[in-house]
Amino acid sequence: MTLSRVLVANRGEIALRIIRACHEEGLEAVAVYSDADRLSPHVRAANDAVPIGPPAASESYLSIPKLIEAAKRTGCQAIHPGYGFLSERAVFAEAVATAGLVFVGPPAAAIRAMGDKTEARRRMQAAGVPVVPGLTRSVSDAADTRREAERIGLPVLMKAVAGGGGKGMRVIRSLEDVSAALQAARSEAEKAFGDGSVYLERLVERPRHVEVQILADTRGRVVSLGERECSIQRRHQKLIEESPSVAVSPALRRRMGDAATAAASAVGYVGAGTIEFLLTPDGEFHFLEMNTRIQVEHPVTEMVTGVDLVREQLRIADGQPMRVAGGHLQPRGHAIECRITAEDPFNDFLPATGVVRYLRVPGGPNVRWDGGVEAGNEVTLYYDPLIAKLIVWGESREAAINRMRRSLRELVIVGLPTSQAFHLRVLDDTEFRRGEIDIEYLQRAGGRLLAEPIARPLMRPIAVVAALLAEERRTAGAVRAPLSTPSGRWSPWQTEARREGLRDW
Question: How many domains are there within the chain?
């Protein structure tokens, strides 16, 4: 079968990313959108766009019947799920196949095998992939949990069988904590995944979170494209990613790549996927889980390998061989990604909403902006707070850090708080610059990184003021009242505006 039209079953930056890849592969792309996203960039970028319902994801982006009907109505042969939403739901992959369409992703059986964490652990052990010591079944009750915790050795980590992201996860350091932890973890897992089952594994103290990107085609080839360092996390959500990891030597990279390709082969994987590992301070690594989809942080791998992962996904789904040679690719230079989110870092990363009044995107050599919003778009609480991803490449890690710092300072987003200032603080932090990071980095460094709000790093504040003033005149035909700071003083924007003669601001 030769694909010609693909439905993109997602929104925001990943939908736009997939649409662009489709066009570069000579394919037409069909977007879907909720009522809240009717003015989003991905809707205009597609060859066709289909409304699929109200803003609530349960009534739009998570509605399998609506997505399949949209694909059939617009003459699509395939559906690309992106990440999040239905991307790792085996039932969606099965429904797509049953409808006679191609799922741009792995077979439903592979999704199901890796989605059940205890089943995945069993398969990885059988394939010779290192796993953290622990159970390959769920615990039955508090007494069972205590027995197994003693056998494994405290401290242990209680985890949800049906999903990740920190949901249903609890650390147990004392047997007295078992009952409360079990009740809380089961309740959280049930709400998040519809399955309250949990299991135990040994707690690995202060590991790095290092993941390996793989590609597998229908011809039986599986390749490793190197690792990504994803240790900077907040509540198990990644904030900054790098490739390669400073902790991974060429020999270790090959060992982890071999384990990752073995893991993918063990479940008959096809397409792009990521094997996540915990890397201990002494260089040992253990299988954590597999993400059976494209990752948010895939661009850093693309920057150091030159491989367009989404285009390869499309080719593989069309039955074509991948264009990647060799079993292991070695990274060239260094890439860093900062997730620009609509959150207030200085208020416990509280999600923010509002209209993006002005947006200035950084540029220059080897700077990439994967964005999902533009000026005039509204950011709501209906979806993930990710606005965009800023990715840079440098010939060394130091060069990449300096380029990212410069790019973040060029970036201007007006209308709502973002994570931009937080990223700048991390990039200036001594521990980060030395590469001394692990999954507890933010817990240790939070005091100095999040101590107090800092000014938004604008490249030219006057340009923002002028743009907002022009917009206000254009849309309302009236002069905007001066903005004031919480202290009642003039803001830096207003001070410079007055200096430049824009007193009607």
Answer: 4
Q: Positive or negative CA dihedral for 92, 98, 103, 109?
A: positive
Tokens of 418: 């973002």
Same domain, 423 and 472: no
In a domain, residue 159? The reply is yes
- Does residue 110 belong to any structural domain of this protein? no
Read off the tokens for 194: 């519809």
Domain that holds residue 381: 337-430
pTM, full prediction: 0.88
Task: Kindly report the backbone phi and psi dihedral angles of residue 497, in degrees, each rounded to the nearest multiple of 5, phi listed first.
Answer: -60, -45
C-alpha to C-alpha distance for 352 and 344, rounded to whole angstroms: 7
Distance of CA 233 to the CA centre of its chain: 11
13: enclosing H helix or E strand:
helix 12-24
List, for residues 254-302, the tens digit of each pLDDT value: 999 999 999 999 999 999 999 999 999 999 999 999 999 999 999 999 9
CATH number for the domain including 346? 3.30.470.20
In terms of domains, do 84 and 145 share one? no
284 belongs to a structural domain: no
Q: Which residue is listed with tokens 């900054």?
A: 240
Catalytic positions: 293
> How many alpha carbons lie under 13 Å from residue 45 in its C-beta half-sphere?
26
Backbone angles phi, psi at 238, to 5 degrees: -70, 145
DSSP run (H or E) holding 30: strand 28-33
